[in-house]
From TrEMBL:
<keyword id="KW-0472">Membrane</keyword>
<feature type="transmembrane region" description="Helical">
    <location>
        <begin position="100"/>
        <end position="121"/>
    </location>
</feature>
<feature type="transmembrane region" description="Helical">
    <location>
        <begin position="191"/>
        <end position="210"/>
    </location>
</feature>
<feature type="transmembrane region" description="Helical">
    <location>
        <begin position="9"/>
        <end position="27"/>
    </location>
</feature>
<protein>
    <submittedName>
        <fullName>Uncharacterized protein</fullName>
    </submittedName>
</protein>
<keyword id="KW-0812">Transmembrane</keyword>
<feature type="transmembrane region" description="Helical">
    <location>
        <begin position="216"/>
        <end position="234"/>
    </location>
</feature>
<keyword id="KW-1133">Transmembrane helix</keyword>
<feature type="transmembrane region" description="Helical">
    <location>
        <begin position="66"/>
        <end position="84"/>
    </location>
</feature>
<feature type="transmembrane region" description="Helical">
    <location>
        <begin position="39"/>
        <end position="59"/>
    </location>
</feature>
Amino acid sequence: MRTAIKTKIPLLFLIAISLWWTFYYQSNSVLNDFGSANYEWLFFIDAFFVLPILCFVCIKNKKEALLKATVLCSIAVLVGSFIIPQTNKLIWPYLEQGRYFVLAALVLLELSVLLTVYVSIKAALNQNIDPDLAIAEPIKRYLGDGLVAKVFSFETRLWTYALFASRIKPERFNGEQHFTYHQKDGAQSNLLGFILLIIIELPIAHVLLHFFWSPLAANIITALTLFSLVFFIAEYRAYAKRPISLTANELIIRYGIYPPQVIPLSKIAAVKAHATYVKRAKQVKRYNSSGVPNIAIELKPASDGSDHVIPTIYLGIDQPNVFLNELKPRLAL
């Protein structure tokens, strides 16, 4: 079974037992002896015995498994507080109080991890190493290589470029030659335009929502808008900092704050200039934010015959001719 599917089994199990026991507890039939057999231990066994075991069986990294089991069990407590009839709750009231302790413990854990990762990243950025590795390695060390680590890496990259972009030097990125993309068709300038629009619109929208809808809605939408503003600022700064790079054996595509895509040169079938619009499709991957892509990279089919490899990647870079002149000879070797 694929790892990506296997790691989702605990969550799917929680959803399944939540639906089943909701039906069981809320029904009035022979299943629950017409309401007299609504025992809380039925849901308790599934939620606090079977679910944690599934987490440790399906997730290789034990730290991630423990974290996921804790989170899912806390969600199970919340679900149980709604679906189990009040008259049948004996242990559940204590569990409901305990979930706040678990939440506080998780927050403290997250803060400690954040602090540790921040110190590690700060130290790494001061050294002459790839900034992407400076961000990714401390997170991988503490959180493993699962979905949580990937999300955390993205968040960390976002805040790193939003707040500390001046400390990141493009020449420190891994690669023999680097190619920029921030000037193509005013890509970075367009992002600056979005940032200015958000800054101008934010206070006006907040006041209108506050008085014509509700203060709560205004606060929520303003918070989400502020987060999008941070994202655009990070993206704006990353455009000029994170290059597309060539090594002896790999093409490393970095674009904005998104995770880098590493393509072995042996997997590239052809590379050529491009000058037409490319629609969104499952078969293509576009790294281009303004205008039309000017580079098309065709990848070789997967050796196992599967179709999970995207066959064509399109790039929009500042100097496409220089890029082609450097990449084509390497493919011929």
